[in-house]
Structure formats: structure tokens, C-alpha cells
Amino acid sequence: MLFLVFISSLVISQDxxxxxxxxxxxxxxxxxxxxxxxPDDQPAPKIVDEPxxxxxxxxxxxxxxxxxxxxxxxxxxxKFERLRFxxxxxxxxxxxxxxxxxxxxxxxxxxxxxPISLKKGKNDVVVELGELKNTNGxxxxxAQVKRWYIAATEEETPTVIFGDLQLESGTTKDEPKxxxxxxxxxxxxxxxxxxxxxxxxxxxxxxxxxxxxxPFDAPEAAKILDxxxxxxxxxxxxxxxxxxxxxxxxxxxxxxxxEAKPLRYxxxxxxxxxxxxxxxxxxxxxxxxxxxxxxxxxLPDSVLIEGWPAFxxxxxxxxxxxxxxxxxxxxxxxxxxxxxxxxxxxxxLYEFYRLTKTDDGWQADQASIFDLASxxxxxxxxxxxxxxxxxxxxxxxxxxxxxRGNIEHALRVTIAKTRHAYVYPxxxxxxxxxxxxxxxxxxRFRLKKDFNTSKFSAEVKVILEALKVYGMxxxxxxxxWAISVAPDARIPVMHDELRKVKGSDFxxxxxxxxxxxxx
Length: 519
Description:
By secondary structure, this protein is mostly beta strands. Helix content is about 10%, strand content about 25%. It contains 8 helices and 27 strands. The strands form 5 sheets. Strands 1, 2, 4, 5, 7, 10, 12 and 13 form an 8-stranded antiparallel sheet that branches. A 6-stranded mixed sheet has the order 15-26-23-25-24-27. It has a 5-stranded antiparallel sheet with strand order 3-6-11-8-9, with no helix packed on it. Strand 4 and strand 5 form a beta hairpin. The radius of gyration is 25 Å and the shape is globular.
């Protein structure tokens, strides 16, 4: 009996707040490999770069009857409901066998043997553990698995690249049915529009030299940001979507968030610009270690915590707090406490979730590093400091943009109730609800073209016009229709004006036929 489920373009993951229970058998994405192969003359598995399986893959060249796997002390598989992994098969269709040896295994009849049929190309494999039987039909003792391996048949010698092998709990809801890879059919390629004016302006600017960290609200920050190209021109954050088609389920998705609810903003996401010689320090990671990028990180003593300074200075109950107080967790350690560091010279971005200063150093619950010169995403199924696995910095409404009179990127928006799925460029979800009327992580909303912006202030008009051209991407669970604005005292309070814009003034857009993610 075949106990496998194959799902095209499967997407699943976890986030700092909502995550399925998971245990890695082999975390290939972190450079881990197997400790058991047979026979001895079979080539050793190699870690290779392979986007099809999540960034890094374990390349295995099987000899006939050969195998790779893990010898372990005892692993309790009974706590989980499925084994999941991705596999790239560059050759002809083949069949492998997953062997599971447990405390009750004394011979071939008392082990589990599961056939794995791999088609040519990408395969997403799910093994439902509740359906497993020993080869003699008896129940396996999955609470005490002591060895597992994947074997080739005696007739075949395939080469296969495996992604992370992981055990998961949860219901079959953990299998999102969305987000096929764009342009997998025969549609003609869609040419992404480039904002050439933006490209030319950045190229004409000269990066100023600076030797000390510069907070985002310092006067000199504007010239640094003018010369910083935040991701390539064809990156999804920089792609105009004013000509993209409306999603067929747009009206229902908008209604699920709230047609009458107002557009809001959070003066939350500040950042610090660091020089290329900024000293790097270690940060202790308390959670999401397996989905964090390792340090050390160029973290200055003056790193800003979410909301600093304007949010705190405008609140009568918080305005007495100093930056050091906020860095140490005041007023509430349980807040998201994002910390964002930008190295504009090396074009690197460092983002932290729940960044906290202690007497023993810095700690956080997640750390992500982004290459601002690349379109590379985080590995599939990986979170970031944001639930969608997206970067935060490229989405922030900044003072220099408002002063220039033009925002040239998509914005970040939070939605309270989201769907158990994600869509490019997101890599991660934060919900167990499969309703197709809910927005996915990465869902892009666009302000309707006919919305009249003429009666709004100059600053708000700049934001609304950007929402018509670039839209906003669902990045996290939070206040409905809330965009992120830098907590900059130079930016006026905009609550009353933005609240005049309602959910019904937006529409959900989808990539045109033939769209493909940029290289």
C-alpha cells in the first residue's frame, strides 16, 4: 500500500506566534547531512545549492541497493502526524524505499517499508505516519524509532537532491492548496515593468562616507538612503502593479478583512544605518533558531527598537522612557520589539524579532539577513522577523520619501485574520484557517485607480498614490488595514486622514499570465 501524498508546489511553514509542531530529521537548509550510508563505496552525500528544494539540498548518488539515513538513539515519531520533504529528481521517474526501524523491529517483517515514487523534476512528499504498518501488517512502535534510511532498488542508481526532512503535527490543514510557481504553464513570459526613473536617480546619487551609526531620523540619513538601491529594479517590492489584473476572489477577500474598516498606520518600524566597519556582536537566539540566519551581526549600542522614538515620545505614559529602557524590554517584553539594521555600503539588511538588551548581551527570538543586491528569498517554509518571511525595511514609509513626494515601493500591511497559505514573494504563513476568502501571506492589495486623493494632505496623498501604483503586501497578523510608517517626529500624525480610506476602496491583485519571479 502506498502511503504518500504528492502536492504540487506545496508551501508550509511557521511563525514566531503560530507554528505547527516540527522536528527536523535532517535540516539540510542549515548544512546538516546524514550519518549513515550503505555500502561504504557509495559516494558521500553532498550539500549543494538548489532553490527547488528550499535553497540548499542534499545530493545523493545512489548505488544499486544503496541507502542514506540516520542512526539515532531514540526519536519519538508518535508525537507527529506526518513526515514531509522535498526532492528534486533530475533523471527518469524512479522509486525509492523509506525504511523505519523501531524498538519492535527484529527482522524485515517487523520494520516499516514505504515506497516513494519520484517523478522527474520537483516532488513534494508527505508520509502520513498514522497509516504506517510493519511489512507483516502489525503496528510499528513509532515512539521509539532508532534508525531510518532511504534506499534505492537493486535495479536503479538514481541521483536525487533532498530538502529538509521534518516531522510535523497538526491536521491536514497544514497542507496549503495555493501558490503554484508562477508561469509553470505555456503562457508567454510577462515583462516586468521597471521604474527607470528610480534606477537613474539612485545611480546618480553618491553614497556619502560615514563612520558611525546613523539613526533613520537623523538629517544625514536622507543622503545615505538616496544612494541605496533597496533590492534590484525588478524585485517584487519595486514592481509597479497598477496594470495587474484583479484577483477573481477579490471582493470576498476584501469583505473578510472589512469593507467598512478604515486604513490605519503604525508609527512602528525604525532602523539604524551602520558603516561598513561596524563591529559585529553575537546575539543569543531564544526561539526559531532553525529558521534564523547565524551571526555575528553588526549591531550597534544605539540600535533602535520598534516604535522608537516618535511612538514613545507621543504617549504620555511612555514618554519618560529612554532608549536603554526600551532596549531592555520596557514597557512589555512580550511586544514584537523588532530591531532593524541596514548596512547600505555592503547592501545587507539585518532584522530581529523581540530584540532585547540584557546585562549579558543581546538576545532575540529570530534573526534574518537579506541581501539587498539580490532577489533571493528566504527558504520555503521559513519565517523572518515578520510572519510572512518577508523583509520589513523595504516596505517602510519614510520621511525622505514623503519629502521627495514619491514612494517607489510596495508597503507593508497587517491583517488580523489570514489564510493558511502564502503567495510569492512570501515564504511563510501564520494561520490554520483554509478559507479561500481570507488573504494569504504576501497577498497584494491595491488602492482603486479612481480613488480621489486630491483633498488629502501632501504626505497622505504620497502614500495613497503609492498604494495605487505599488500596492501593499500582507506581511503579518495584526491590526486590520494597518500600514507601517517610520516612528519619525518629522512625519505628521495622519490617523484622521487615513481613516477616510476604507477597505472597500482596495482590491486584491494577482500577477498577469506569464509572470515569473525575477532571477
